[in-house]
Specification:
The complex is a heterotrimer of chains A (about 260), B (about 290) and C (about 350). Chain A is α/β, with parallel strands linked by helices and about 260 residues long. Chain A is built from 9 helices and 10 strands. In chain C, a hairpin with a 6-residue loop joins strand 4 (about 335-340) and strand 5 (about 345). The two termini of chain C are about 35 Å apart. The chains are: A alpha/beta (about 260), B mainly alpha (about 290), C mainly alpha (about 350).
Amino acid sequence: MTTPVKRDGEVGGGTPLLEARDLTVNHGQLRAVDAISLRVYPGEVYAMIGANGAGKSTLLRTIAGLHQPAAGAVLLDGQDLTRVRPERRARQGIALVPEGRRLFGSLSVEENLKVGTAYARKGPWTIDRVYETFTWMKDRRNQRTAQLSGGEQQTVAIGRALVANPRVLLLDELSLGLAPVIVQRIYGMLPQILATGLTVLLVEQDVSQALKVASHIHCLLEGRTTLEGRPADVTAEQVEAAYFGLADAPAGPPAEGSESLWPG
Amino acid sequence: MAWVNAIIQGVLTGGLYALFACGLSLMFGVMKVVNLAHGDLAVVAGYIAIGVITVTHIPTLWSFLIVVPVMAAIGYALQRTLIQASLDRGVLTTLIVTFGLSVVIENALLQFFTANSRGIGVGLPLVTESFSLGSQIQIAYLLVVIFAVAVLVLSGLQYFLSRSKYGRLIRAAADDQEAVQLSGADYRHVFGICAALAFGTVALGGIAYGMYSQLSPTTGTDTILLFAFAAVVIGGLGSLWGTLLGGVVLGVAQQIGAQVNISYELLAGYFVFLAVLVLRPQGLTYRRAQS
Amino acid sequence: MSTVTETPARPAAGFRVTRSQRNVAWTGIAVLAVVVVMAMFPYFVYSGTTSVLVQAFIVLTMASMWNLLAGYAGLVSVGQQAFVGLGAYFVLILAINGISPFAALPVAAIGAGVVALPLWWLVSRLRSGYFAIATWVLAATIMLIIERFSSIGGGTGMPLPGFAGFDPTLLTAYTYWAGLAVTVITLLVIYLILRGRLGLVLTAIRDDEVAARSSGARVGWARMLVFLVAGAGCGAAGGVLAISQLQVQPSAVFSVQWTAEMGFATIIGGLGTIEGPIIGTAVYMVLQQTLATYNAWYLIILGLVAIVIALFARRGLWGLVDSRLNVRLFPVGYWLRLDGEANGRRTRTPRPRRPAKHGA
């Protein structure tokens, strides 16, 4: 699978669709996210990787509005959403598929999707289109989601986010609790999703999976950035070092272009 | 035959109790709020109805059309302000605040309207008369009407919850209020609508009770709250029709108790309530298969 | 580029842990002095005032119990009036059988505590909302059962025997001393409980129940003991109530109004502190005395104030004072003194202001 090309060029070109500026988020007394900045351009698949507790999910949830940052800003298409409530952000086009699926257990598959359409924007995604994309769903649409398998629940959760026709789709730890085969199948759907004009920001613990689908990766360790760049430009050793925070990085000059693409 | 009469009476009273209970079930099931002022709000509705009728001289049955929407609106406002603020601070605070509300309402009613009980006169033969089935069975028309209204209200609520957009949102928010935000819904607004439904139905129950019996400042807690909660617990939380079942069981238990000895009426109901609480707290409609 | 930063650990400072800021002996002597002075009241104070003080003692005892239940064990009971009534009726039954009501007081307390045991078995597994309503139903049920017995007054009640030939002034004095004794013993018991191991468990429950359970604290036992003690305490208060009113009427002694009064007093004064109920009772008495002619007003105002405080000043009036002055009348906490610091730093962690959101 080839990594998609960014539409607006690489260095400082165009307005990012989604931006986090010096975002700092605290969990009680713990600094979960420490002055993180990132920019996601339209059409990208931006992957955040890192070990457990690195702050990735917290960052995603903050962007969606479920946490208030202690400092920094979240911008959607240049508009500052930092003080905006999560439901308003959803209506503006940020759709989070949360960690653990978080489906409405007492509702059926179709009812879950219908909730997704409650405050949807206009766009190509409808419930029928979701049924076309995930072919197993239509036959089981009246089943309660609590009775589905993990992979099926994950696709319903994605479908619920899609029917709102968001501009940015935030995927939090898709692979959690799922068999690798299922995970690959789900990630295999990404091109169809992107083809409708969506942008994806995802958090993934499975590094190899992330490297396969991402157009840009960003590694976090203990709330701080340890690596950023295009998958093609980073070596496995560098990713490993950044992921685990190994003090002794591989010897020799780093490959060209693998450093942070923008200053600071 | 007196027993048959008692049982029929009890079954029909269950309809009234269901009206008391469905709002409580909604608020507890969706928002985990035990509104200790629930019964007092029914009494307030009754007093408002009396006031409206006295001032405007409209026919009693029209008072429903005014009082129920007003109470629903009050419910929305109270939920968005007081109750939501309490919820944000925890279960303890919610219980304390709603208990405080209950005491304040009761004493305010006591202060301004004295402890005398009042009834809502309807002036229609419908209310005071009853019909007979055979020689020993007397059934009050009013009770049958109230039962029918209860069935209508429960059906309406059930339909609303399962088919409409807001009904879905209410059920979704009950499952996961954070996730419902991610789909663009303000859960505080959704809870407000739920509270409006609860206050509206209990207002209906209060006015019905005022017609059937008498209202006094303490009726809210003595009668309505405890019976409503008993109906919810016996029938099973999470089921609207369960409140009707619970109400019927409660009503029948009370009437049977009254048959044994007139002063056992309340006791019988409380015993059944306590028995269910201890032995089968999930209620009678609970099924393992449910999530 | 990978960034690895190291934060050097601070060297462990020398520190001591002490029980209280100032010498306990001084506060103890002060409290003793207050009690002695109060015991002398009947000798130089009008009987009208002592009667009011008896009411205050009753409310203070009940409020302290409610505080123990809700503020420490996390149990919101709306049915404590059951024990108040039971205490009153224990005194009545014993008085009918020739025992002096004053001597009956300890029996009333113990009796109420004993009845609390089967009641706890009924309600112990219930979660907060269910628990609250269940206690209310229990209270209503107990009242209905007692009303069935005409030998103790049935539904209308009866006067309390055992005072024939008592000089009225002496009676007032004895009632006052009984009330004072019950209150002092209650506060002492609470102080000792909270200072001991049970208190540690209770404070842990108060601060964070889940954490308390997972660290092995015997939450179930602690709660049961609190429920029993609260039953006994309210029973004692009920006994004093019966004596002060010279009669026992079911609708009066089993009224949910008692729970309202003890609940409001506790909340206004400060839930979760020993001093709170004392302040709350004072506020309650002031309100009740100034508004005495306006019957229901004092409960309306009390209720509104309690709602406001529950929402905006969770630790009540005492909490507002405490956070500024760092004073404790009853030393049950611990102080952490770092070497080189003149004043200790409190180890009490503030209660979380917003509990974790549902579904988070």
